[in-house]
Amino acid sequence: MDDGSGDVLLGALDRPAQGVRKPLVILVHGLTGCETGTYMLTTAAALLAQGHPVLRLNQRGAGPSRPFCRLRYHAGRSQDLRAVLAQLPSGLVGDGVLMAGYSLGGNALLKLLGEGDLPVPILAAASVSAPIDLALTSRTFMEPRNRVYHSWLLNRMKAETFASGPRIEAKWADAVRTARSVYEFDDRFIGPWNGWSGAEEYYAVNSALRFLPRIAVPTLVVHALDDPWIPGAIYTSIDWSANPNLTPLLPSGGGHVGFHGEGGVWHDRCLAAFFAAHI
Fold first, then answer.
1. CB-based contact 99:25 (threshold 8 Å)
2. Local confidence pLDDT in tens for the 279 residues of the chain
3. Starting from the edge strand earliest in sequence, which strands make up the sheet with 11-14, in order?
4. Residue 214: domain span
5. Residues 145, 226 contacting (CB under 8 angstroms)
């Protein structure tokens, strides 16, 4: 995708056996992920086996897109997903489009669906382990029990920012380098770099929670209540009956983008069944 900004988003397209015609599935990765993430490859394989072509999309500045992007993705960059949909060739979307987003990518996808104005119809969608309340998720990262993961994630975010690709200005580089938490990273860099006053405004504007009531696409929402980083209480406090387009699937166990068990990855089987029911 080229949106006129000079940035180019890349993705990997997997095609099933010839002669099978099913809707395209677009997969959107999470924070510090890319097209080659384990969950992206596993889901792609499961859906390919069902006869779907699968586009494993790199968000702006992620993976092989990094050298071609000045800007970077964030939790609410739904306009990139909209632009990708608008530029897909008609031969690829002629049988319909399905979408699935993981973690941060799930938040962006739910926001897109709630905003509407989709350039091509989306038959169905799914989110897995999405941080739909960004402020509460950020606070949870900083709890003592998450200290090791928090440190690992923050280092990954910094490394991704400084990886190959167009260099950022010195003041932003310093903000990234000195951030001591995910919150400070968002407050000093992601928020103001993208035009918000800081983390709190960035979280408030982009949390998918406030977009859920307006989603008009059949959407499966998968989240484990024992997710250590995204509190299950966010999901259990929602009145799901208020929007019949949303189907919550909230198991007690599964962790964050986990759901491993006998017969493969459980959420992949759920996605495949949900999509099959809506095409």
1. yes
2. 666 778 999 999 999 987 678 999 999 999 999 999 999 999 999 999 999 999 999 999 999 999 999 999 999 999 999 999 999 999 999 999 999 999 999 999 999 999 999 999 999 999 999 999 999 999 999 999 999 999 999 999 999 999 877 788 999 999 999 999 999 999 999 999 999 999 999 999 999 999 999 999 999 999 999 999 999 999 999 999 999 999 999 999 888 887 766 666 889 999 999 999 999
3. 11-14, 54-57, 24-28, 97-102, 122-128, 219-222, 246-249
4. 1-133+207-279
5. no
Distance CA 69, CA 147 (A): 31
149 & 34 share domain = no
CA distances from 223 to 35, 83, 126 (A): 22, 27, 11
- Count of structural domains, the chain: 2
Contact in structure between 106 and 30 (CB atoms under 8 Å): yes
Same domain, 110 and 43: yes
Examine the domain organization and report whether 129 and 148 are in the same domain: no
Domain shared by 52 and 126, yes or no? yes
Contact 209, 184 (CB under 8 A): no
Residues 199 and 85 in one domain: no
The two structure tokens encoding residue 171? 């003041």
Do 92 and 181 have their domain in common?
no
228, 126: one domain:
yes
